[in-house]
Design brief:
By secondary structure, the chain is an alpha/beta fold. The protein has helices at 2-26, 40-87, 106-113, 126-134, 199-204, 206-225, 264-279; strands at 95-99, 139-147, 151-158, 161-167, 169-174, 179-182, 193-195, 234-240, 244-249, 254-259, 284-288, 299-302. β5 (169-174) and β6 (179-182) form a beta hairpin.
Length: 303
């Protein structure tokens, strides 16, 4: 009887346990009683990682801030140095050597370059002064050397006017073939004048302009080379149709027809004709040296 009761008691206990297990599956424990998924060690590890990350970020920010301070300091220091050298009397211009100026005065050249004694040497660079000089119509080439603490050496070459070009207004022509400025007060005017040039074609056709001026400047050189410049003053160079050339020379404006280049041989023959007439105490009304079929033939009409 006692064994039976014990067996029944164990069955009852087992049944109650089964009921509790079913109830636990149906009604889980409250969240507050669940075991936390984060252990203390995990939290410490995470905190250490976050602290290390913050430390690296802080170090990078500190380096950036330091670099910014250094850059700002360098800029400020540079400005202080620049302000010092631009205001210090030690860097005032004391010496300006000028070479090559003959027609232009020293004051005009230095004013064009932007240079002056007492002016801070850093205000005008050598290249800036050179560019300023080349803007002057009479200056063909220029070089400028700046030496610290306070000197410049300026060298220029001036244009030499050899003729006047008439294309509506009068323009000066240089010996390098440059038509470089309108004739103005104070400019040389006792020069051969070039006439008969079509102003519209001259302005619009660059090739025509370049070749024409080169031919005419070459003619002036040949005229001097033939020994005629001192003998017979060249008053006018006239461009005729077909780019034939005629000269008017001497005080009586003797007409000399040259035709087309080359001119040097024709000018040598002209010199012989004029010398022969001078011995006879005669003057020519015109001399034609433009015979295409007979280039060695000279036609002369006496006054």
């Amino acid at each position: 009887m006692l064994k039976t009761n014990k067996r029944q008691s164990s069955e009852v206990i087992e049944r109650k346990r089964e009921i509790r297990r079913k109830q636990n599956r149906k009604f889980p424990r409250p969240a507050s009683r669940r075991k936390s998924v984060f252990s203390l060690e995990a939290l410490r590890a995470r905190f250490a990682r976050d602290a290390d990350r913050l430390h690296r970020i802080g170090g990078a920010l500190a380096r950036i801030a330091l670099l910014a301070v250094l850059v700002a300091g360098a800029v400020a220091g540079g400005r202080l140095i620049e302000r010092h050298v631009r205001t210090s009397k030690s860097f005032a211009t004391k010496v300006i050597k000028l070479e090559g100026a003959s027609r232009l005065g020293r004051d005009e050249v230095l004013r064009q370059a932007g240079l002056a004694k007492g002016k801070n040497i850093f205000e005008v660079s050598a290249e800036s002064a050179r560019r300023n000089l080349l803007k002057h119509p009479w200056i063909a080439t220029a070089s400028v050397v700046r030496r610290l603490p306070g000197s410049y050496r300026v060298s220029i070459s001036e244009r030499r006017a050899v003729a006047l070009l008439s294309i509506g207004d009068l323009y000066l022509v240089a010996d390098d073939g440059t038509v470089f400025k309108p004739l103005a007060e104070g400019d040389p005017f006792d020069l051969p004048i070039i006439t008969g040039v079509d102003s519209d074609e001259f302005a619009s056709d660059r090739d025509f302009r370049a070749s024409l001026i080169a031919d005419l400047v070459g003619l002036l050189e040949d005229y001097a080379r033939a020994g005629l410049m001192r003998r017979e003053r060249l008053a006018e160079i006239h461009l005729e149709p077909g780019r034939n050339v005629a000269l008017y020379v001497g005080s009586d404006s003797t007409e000399i027809r040259l035709g087309k280049p080359p001119f040097l041989g024709k000018l040598h023959r002209l010199k012989k004709v004029l010398e022969s007439l001078e011995k006879k105490k005669s003057r020519a009304f015109y001399v034609y040296l433009d015979n295409v079929r007979r280039p060695d033939r000279v036609t002369v009409r006496l006054r």
